[in-house]
Amino acid sequence: MSNLETQNFEKGRIKALQDERVYIQKKTFTKWANAFLEKVRMEIRDLFSDLADGKMLMKLLEIISGENLGRPNKGVLRVQKVENVNRCLKFLATKVYFENIGAEDIVDGNPRLILGLIWTIILRFQIQEITIDLDEDEEDGERKSAKDALLLWCQRKTAGYPGVNITNFSNSWRNGLGFNALIHAHRPDLLDYNRLDPNDHIGNLNHAFDVADQQLGIPKILDAEDVDVNRPDEKIIVTYVASYYHYFAKMKTEMTGGKRIAKIVGMMRDVEKMEDDYEKLTSDLLQWIRNKIKALNNRDFPNSLEGIQKELIMFKEYMTAEKPPKYRERGNVEVQYFNIQARLKANGQKGYVPPEGMLVHDIETAWLQLEKSEHGREVALKDELVRQERLEQLARRFSRKAAIRESWLSDMEQILEENIVCNNAAQTEAAVKKHEAISAEILARKDRFRALNSLASELVQGNYRAKDKVKQKDQEVMVRWKRLLDKLDARKSSLSGFNDLMSMFREIESITEELAEVETKVKADDCGKHLQATEDLLQQHALLESQLAALTRRVRKLNRNQAKLIQDGGKGGPGHREAKHLDNKLADLNKNLERVQAVSNARRANLDTAVRYYQFLVDTEQEERWAAEKLEEAKLTSVGKDLDAGLKLLKKHEALEAEMQGRWRRCEQICGVGQDLVNQGHPARGEIGARIKSLMDRWKQLQDAAATRRTRLEDALEAQQYYADANEAESWMKEKMPLVCSDDYGKDKATAQALLSRHNRLDQDIRAFKVEIKRLEELSVLMTKAASEHNISPAKFLSVPVENGSADNGEPRADGDDKDEEEEVVEVPREVEVEEIVEREMMQDVVETRKIPQVRAMYPYKGQGMAVEKGELENFRPIFLKQIDQSALHRNVLYLSIFTIA
């Protein structure tokens, strides 16, 4: 075998062993888990899939740990499964450290991580608690734990049994004698060890497994075939042996329990009296603590400063006289409890557990609660003392401020009772100003009365001892304050008519002044000399219009107020001496407003017309420049040197036509604006009409040039497509020519028959291809006619080189000289777009390179006016035509198919 095959075999073997170990562990761990789950009537069928929802895993952990993990989710959705498994992993994390295991791995059925998780559970709950003393005669001797302790236990129990040598948890158990020895060491009545055959591994293993299962109740989680291998899996052996250890350890514990009970009964008789004394002392102390806590938690304090001060004195007496003896009594109870515990411990008996509620801890808890209540009462008494002191201060402040407010109310009531004199505008204005001063003085005191009311509310809410008197005084002051505000409103109502009248006069004067300023500005005749200036003037006028609109709203408001005054009547109504004067002023104001609005509208119309005119001039200039630029592009004569170039030029021309189509709508709009200006009789209508005509003429030139260029490009594309098809036809004929001209007629009848069949197929292909040649011939006639109409030479699109000495029209030389002819390299001009074209005359030396190509005959041929031998050299001389016909095309194809470049 090669190295590669050896490596592949080794890799395959390793993979097979790994899969076998995974299968064995899966089977063993499944049986181990089912041994616990059968208690709740649950069963795992596939370890890798049944744990995915987390419900069985959670139940397994609850059974093996004895703890409650809560109710699991339904486990239908993936997120519910992940949540269940995460709860299991969080619980395990509190018991043992592990990493690299995620809930998603368990839900997705990762075999190795699931086996690792089960093994972690086995180690923590089955093996970790196993400890063995190295020196069995000493209780405090050195100990081993976990797997080492389990191995030591197996070695001690199987020592001296023939055929048993336990050194590990792998191949030491292969023959099955180790399991039988463990059972015989603890229960020799269950089996006859001497009758076992050391060579019958499977029989020994099955015997031990069956006895353990049927007699001891240890589940059979191993199969004999999985153990009887070269190297059994260590994890499954450890798991099964741990079950033996737990069973026999429990059996030993039950045997030693009876002896201890008798000793404990005797000791309990000696400490019963001590326990009775302890319980009586504890009961009395706890009852005192409960009574004191109830008294200390009482917050029914006297509602006075003197009463709170007395309560503080009583609390200090309790802390200094009553509490210290009880503290010493608590110490005696604890001493009694520890004496009982020491007595029980000396006799090796279980510690004394007092009745519920009489533990030392209960006394400590009650004492802490007592101290907490003491602290709470002390804080409450101090807070209440502070509150009572603050209430006394607030009461004194309320009495002082209430007296000040009552005195001020008396003064203001006298002022508001004075009569109002308003016989003319001057007296009205003076009365209004005086009222405004009085109103400002009164309203400024509103916060002070509100503060007085808040002070009274705080005293009432704080349960002040004289809260009823405070509430009554506050109501008296607030009633007088409300009566004062009512008088102020009545006085204000009587002055409102006069005040409104004066306000309207002032408003009319203000609007008249502003209206005069606006009228001066809107009467300007300047409409600007260009577009930017006109737009600036239009923006300024818009601001004036906004100002005028605001003035209009103010005038309308004055008209409404006047109508309201007339409707309400009273001192400000039509009977007042100033009412007629108000009517005259308001009428003049309305007339001025209408006049200014008319002037503003005329100014707006003139500016709009000027903007349209200047915008028309700018737009026509832009369109003229654009049309001139595109006209130069449409006049280009280049049609491309090949089919790809022609297609690119046609696509570019189509883009130009699309741009023209979109631009034409804008041109029509511009011309429409100009025609509207002409119809409206604009002063520059002559210039506007000339600009419209010039723009339309320019567009006509552009459209004609674009149509002409499209025709030329389309014709050129047809010609280029024709020559491409002709080149393909030439290639096909060149390919078939060697078969037609071959002088191979076969060496016998069979080969001749084969050649004849091939020739017949070739003849059919040639006849079928004749249709393509006919199409090209007809197309050439149409192209020649189109070229004549558009002055395009077909030779311009030929892909073969031009002969030296040929005429400009593509005709061959008349002398028919057969000497070496030179090939002329012709540079085809390409169209290049530049932003600016500068015409300039330049003198330049041009070096022309001429090549004389030669061709070599690929096979002998005679016919069509030529005779050549195979390998003969000849100058390159294809036939060039002015008019394309089928016979000339055939001769060119024949020539190209016989010769190849030398």
Automatic annotation (TrEMBL):
Sequence segments annotated as region (Disordered): 799-824
Calponin-homology (CH) domain: residues covered: 23-126, 144-249
UniProt-recorded Gene Ontology molecular function terms: actin binding
UniProt protein name: Calponin-homology (CH) domain-containing protein
Keyword annotations from UniProtKB, A to Z: Actin-binding, Coiled coil, Repeat
Sections of the chain in a coiled coil: 264-291, 501-599
Keyword Coiled coil: yes
Repeat found in the keyword field: yes
InterPro entries in alphabetical order: Actinin_actin-bd_CS, CH_dom, CH_dom_sf, Spectrin/alpha-actinin, Spectrin_repeat
Pfam families cross-referenced by the UniProt entry: CH (PF00307), Spectrin (PF00435)
